[in-house]
Structures are given as structure tokens and as C-alpha cells.
What does this fold into?
Amino acid sequence: MEILRLVRSATYGAAEFDKCAFPGFRFAPSWAILDASLRDEREHLTGWPVKRSHSDNKDPFIRLLFGAGILTLRMPLPTYTCLMRFHTASFRLFSPVLALAGLVCVLAQAPAALAWGNSGHRMINRLATNTLPTDVPAFLRSPEALAEIEYLGPEPDRWRSPAEPELVAAQAPEHFIDLEPADALGPLPHKRLDFEASVFASGQRPEKVGLQPWEATEVWQRLKAAMREYRNLSAAKQDTKPTEAAILFYAGWLGHYVGDAAQPLHTTIQYNGWVGPNPNGYTTEHKIHWQCEGPFVDANLRELAVKAKMTPLKAVDGDLFDAYIAYLRHTKTYVEKVYQLEKAGGFVGAGTPESREFIAERLGAGASMLRDMIYTAWQESAKPVADPYAAK
It folds into this structure.
């Protein structure tokens, strides 16, 4: 379902995947997203799940060669961290049996990299969908919808392969915002291009500051527009299945950024080791980001503990962009807390009760905000809007 939508996007250069400010580059990000999704689908069809692992090999693809024929699986092995380094392995084998054995050997070289971008993001999307109220459409609460939206939680992290360099360059800044330099430019404007212009005028580059709130707002508005179309088609007794697929994709896609925005180190220049004056002696090593959102989450955080930290359902009040900025600013208040927990050994092994509770609360905050944003999109989609093509 997702791939069919991406084929259409890549074919027509649909605006829903345009991440570049320059029209000449419209096609590349859409095509790269399709290529990445097809690569994941090939992995699924082989029946051989490839674990994401730490490896120092530089070959960005795994190639399996079968006898006289050649089957090439282009599957990067990403480490889902803030640095998003990509490490892979390659090998040649000349029989199906040896190929499978060789794959097992490669996977055994290093532990799987299960980060917030995988198990944590899936949990956030699953909990948000599971707690939607009954007044949203039934298809959005179905088991099929739950599975789709959960799967899409890590989706933007699947778009970071060096096999799609244009896409990587365009979407990497959308996972974070360093609020310190952003706020130094003045009040944050609602429109992405206005912010980018301000950053360029200051002698900086947007990809160094981050574009997180604009991406999240734009994806939310896509979701709202799709829900409005669903209402229109339903009222006209027309087929809603394609629009339902779009809604699920947008909801899952949105969940990734809302989840990122619940992680304090996605909001600050202190994203991976303390910089500048450091009177409290916080770590300056470049590993704290991975420590607090990586194997620690997978090993210690369970759905029931996270669900217990979720807040009651509440539609977002007022302007969505302003509410989202407030959500990011609240997240940023916990930056020093992360460093304090790390200093106390809170992210080593089982951590401490305090560190487990803290991360559960952050995941719960992400799930709550995502649920509330989906619900708000549904409510807002009922409001009439002018036809943008009526005067043409």
C-alpha cells in the first residue's frame, strides 16, 4: 500500500515528498523514498530479515549471487542513532545454501542496533493509535491500521541510506532543531522558507540548525487535508480506500517526528556530548545520544510502563505550529536531566529506576502528542475551506 503511493509520487514528482526548496530537485527525493521502500520490500520477500548492525565495512550494499544467476539485494544496514552512520557488509556466495549460511555469519558479527528510531518509534505510534477515541473513523482504529502506522514509526530513518544522497541531504535536518541558535534569530516564523531565509541571512545554514517543527507541521497539514478529502468522498458515497491509505501513511510518518521531538537531545546543541562551559562535569564524549535512546530503550522499556505515562486525550488548542513549538520547548527543559542521569550511570545496562521512569515518560509524551495531533486533524478536517481552484 505504501509502495503504490510512493510509485505515484516518484512518477509525478508529487509535492507531498518535495523536501528541497528548489524545483529542479523535486524528483530526486521522491524517487529515493520509493527506492528505499522497495529495498525494504525485497528484504521482506526473501524471508531473510537483515538486522541493523555495527560494522566498519564501507560497501553500502549486500549482494547475494546465486550460481549462474545474480540476485542483488540493495539493503543498507543503518545504525539508528542521531549520527545515523551507515555500516554494511558484502559477500559473494555461489549457492543458495551457502548464501543463507553466509548471511547468518554476517549478522552474527555485531549486535542489532535497536534505537528509539526502531523499537521506541514503533511503540510511540502503536500506543497513539491504540488510544484514539471512538469518534475517529473506524478504519483508523482497525488492526490493519495499527500495524501500518506502527510499521511507519521508523520510516524516515529508513530514508538515510547513502544510496539516496539527495534524500538524505534534504530530510536529515527535519529530525531535530537546535533551539539555541534558532531562537537567537528571533521569533520562529510559521513558514519553513521564511525561517530558512532568516538562517541564510545570519550566515548560517538551515541543515545545521534543524527544521523539525516545520516538517512536523507540514506532515500534520497533509494528514488534515487527507482527512477532509475522506469526509468529502464519504459524503458523496465514493470510494475512500485510496484516501484511507494516504491517511495511514501521513499518520505514521507524522509519528516519527513527534517522537523525535519528545527526545530532549533532538532540541539542543548539546545533542551528543556537552559543549561550552561545563561546571557540572557532564560527559563530552559523543555517545550519550546513543546510550539514552538505543539498546537501553529496547532492553528496559515496556509498553505498559510507557502507556501509564500517557496524558488524557486532549485536542490541541489554538494554532498547531505554536502548540508544537511549546511541546518542543517543554522537551528541551529536560536536556540537563539527560546528562545528570548519564553521569549517574542511568543508561548503562538496566540503568536506574529514575532513568527508566524518565525515558518511559518521554516516550509517553510522544505517544500522547501524536494521538492528540491525529485527533485534532480529524476535528479540524470538518471545517469548510474555500476551493483553491474555484477562481481558476
Remarks:
- The two ends are 33 Å apart (CA to CA).
